[in-house]
Amino acid sequence: MIDPVLLRENPDLIKRSQELRGESSEYVDEAVAADAARRTAITVFEALRAEQNAFGKQVAQAPKDAKAALVAQAQELAGRVKAANQAVSDAEASFTLAVQKLGNIVLDGVPAGGEDDYIVLREVGEIPAFAFEPRDHLEIGELLDAIDMPRGAKVSGARFHYLKGVGARLELALMNMGLDRAIAAGFTPLITPTLVRPEIMNGTGFLGAHADEVYYLPEQELYLTGTSEVALAGYHADEIIDVSNGPVRYAGWSTCYRSEAGSHGKDTRGIIRVHQFNKLEMFSYIDPADAEAEHQRLLAWQEGMLQDLGLTYRVIDTAAGDLGSSAARKYDVEAWVPTQGAYRELTSTSNCTTFQARRLDIRHRTESGKTAPVATLNGTLATTRWLVAILETHQQADGSVVVPEALRGYLGGLERLEPVA
RNA sequence: GGAGACGUCGCAUAGUCCGGCCGAGUGCACCACCCUGCUAAGGUGGAGUCCCCGUAAGGGGACCAGGGGUUCAAAUCCCCUCGUCUCCGCCA
Fold this sequence. Notes:
CATH topology of the largest domain: BirA Bifunctional Protein, domain 2
Helix content: 40-55%
Number of helices: 13
Shape: elongated
Number of domains: 2
Distance between the termini: 56 Å
């Protein structure tokens, strides 16, 4: 949620941000008006309530014979208080509705525009060349008996898969490698719930633009999370946490569920886009002043993973219109996928500044002793999709795959994945 | 699934039966000062969160798990939801 004080005092700043996102700046005016209406309603109600409170004391102290008359008088006042109270509730609901239409304020330097207006910050590594016709990840996965799509479909439907044998081991190895690095960097591992209550799902902002991609269990009113970010952000909801000695960092390990509504026909082959996958997610709660530096650190850890896995990648600064409502800036690291001849997103790291924390009511105590919202940041350290780039990049003519050195320790020293005869 | 108990200001509790003097007492912990010369105790004071008005000083409102209701008035009475605990049943 946008800072209401900022909305009041500097609506133009928010309008500029909305324009960068390609969204209506009229929402800002609506929110400002709703805020004014809300405050007026509060003032009216509080004056009446003060009167009622004073009256109540009189009634309590009045001698018995005078009480009846006073009570009769108070009844009329009570009616007005009730109406004013209802007016406040209505005005607050309208304000919330209006302000929730506003996305986080985009940081300086974020490119304007939509999905295709990203800026490439850097390309790292050589585009791999093959002396043979490279196989795509699914073909390799099947040669290795590592990925089983047909049985995934039989049991659960399209976009479900089994990871088997070295495939299963490879994913666990990758996750463990990420986890070890996260721990070394000061992250506390956290295996999170993947079913969450509506208020948490809403608080993290995923019921906005992503609402149709979210699985929902109406019977028990629970949402399946598409990323552990939801449970990680919700972890400290309604709390005042101590970030005076540096960020509070968690590495969340969870299965993720995405319905992928609206992406029919896209990436239907293999495990690039599936309904269920695993992910290791970094999450930081931090003093807002340090958020941008932390964002760079998260990005560096992500890049370190890609580099040590021998993957070729580029880093993009996502355009404002492609940010998602909570993020003020987002970097994607995209790995080269040889058979697609394209970079595909493997990680994403977002700086949500205080937007998400304000919505979830996560605060810290500033030096002056006041409370203020913290900043939250998140970034992917490993996911199932990485197997695509690893398998394709390190494949050999005979169908085997060389295991990147950094991963071998997590596979019992295995240096090469061999096709199953 | 059945039966019951409970949810109060960091922690522990009082208050709820019999509504107003309770935004709320006490203990511990905390902060400041004082006292004491010894490793701990004593004294005084302070301190919650959120919001509104105000340049400010200050004033006002809300908050007793959450929501709704009764009432002139609700921590206290009624209903619902959530959570915790105990017992029984069930358990791939």
